[in-house]
Amino acid sequence: MTTIWASAKANSRTKTYKDYAKPLWQRTLMTTESAVILGLILVVAYASIAVNNFASDITLYYLLRDITPILIIALPMTLIILTGDIDLSVASILALSSVTFGMMVQGGWPVPLAIIGTLVVGLVCGAINGFLVTVVGLPSLAVTIGTMAAFRGIAQGLLGTTAITTFPEEWTNLTSMKIGSTGIPVLSILVLVLIIVFAVIMHFTPFGRGIFAIGLSKEAAEFSGVNVQRTKMILFLLAGLLSALAGIYLTLKTSTARAENGTGLELTVIAAVLLGGVSIFGGKGAMHGVIAGVFLIGTIESALRLANVTSDVSRIIVGTLLVLSVISPSILAWIRGRRRPASTPGTQTQAFLAKS
Q: How many CA atoms, within 13 angstroms, populate the side-chain half-sphere of residue 269?
């Protein structure tokens, strides 16, 4: 009981009557997710004024195309981080999938079969991560750092420094098709469907509630009937599968399969997820905040690119946002702690239970 209590107290602040006594508008708007959405609105408004031709269908079109791989990978990454784990190998799985897909198409495989084969490769990569984390019991950070290097190394060993650039035109055109005369790519419909599916799983199913429970306290989740190992295995499988899907999309979008595809993408994905309000310690977050975080980073990068700012500056900004998104919850918790009374009857009871 002591372990469960200490873990829950360390990773989250217990909701009290005072929290729910606040007005609905305050509980809805005074959140991290709302702050990110407001930040996105302000960045779009400023960029529309400061950058020429930013507010146009063309900008929206290229923005949606650029952030599609990030959005796809951010969906399973959100669920993994909610459990208190992390997957740093997603960009390497993307690269290996890109190389696999290119070699299959070059070897004469029909594109649909090559897509299926590549998705299987992604599932295998996710299964390796899941097995080492759930069955062997290794820390996800150490495991995925190792597989990040291993998967990227396999991709480089298969293709070397060369690139495959010959793909059927009807498939490469699919990534550039628009919905009518709008600036929205056709494949954004698939991404929207994935977002809805993951949002429903995360917020409206027992499986999603189990994910939050694992992040708050693994031991308490197990006592509540959550199969922690199976849940984490499913999440790593989903991460591998959707990373492979992102690799296929990126390959067709650029008409290039190479081992360097997606380099550094994992940091952008993690930055977007944490910026969107998901706690690095697990147990807290919302899907709409993550989507806003992806769009915020994508909008900043797009505006800087249109303003002829180098990619180095974009990386510095993304890195700064990542650091701020990690430390800001701790700062806010410290401020709330300073404002709270030194002792209450509830805290005395908690101290007694923690000692017992």
A: 31
DSSP-H helix ranges across the chain? 2-11, 17-20, 24-29, 32-50, 57-82, 90-106, 111-130, 140-159, 169-174, 188-204, 206-216, 218-223, 228-254, 265-275, 287-306, 311-339, 345-355
159 neighbors 102 (Cβ within 8 angstroms) = yes
Q: What angle do CA 236, 106, 62 make, to 5 degrees?
A: 65
List the Cα angle 200/329/312 in 5-degree steps. 90
CB 250 within 8 A of CB 146: no
**Structure token pair of residue 178:** 């628009």
**CA–CA gap between residue 141 and residue 120 (Å, rounded):** 24
Coil, strand, or helix at residue 164?
A: strand
pLDDT, tens digit, 9 for 90 and up, residues 153-185: 999 999 888 899 999 999 999 998 999 888 899
Contact 69, 262 (CB under 8 A): yes
Topology (CATH level 3) of domain 2-355:
ABC transporter involved in vitamin B12 uptake, BtuC (1.10.3470)
Q: Nearest CA to 10 among 211, 280, 278, 290? A: 280
| Distance of alpha carbon 224 from the chain centroid | 27
Domain boundaries in the chain?
2-355
What is the rounded CA–CA span in Å between residue 125 and residue 147?
8
pLDDT in tens, 334-351: 776 766 655 444 444 444
- For 334, the token pair is 């410290």
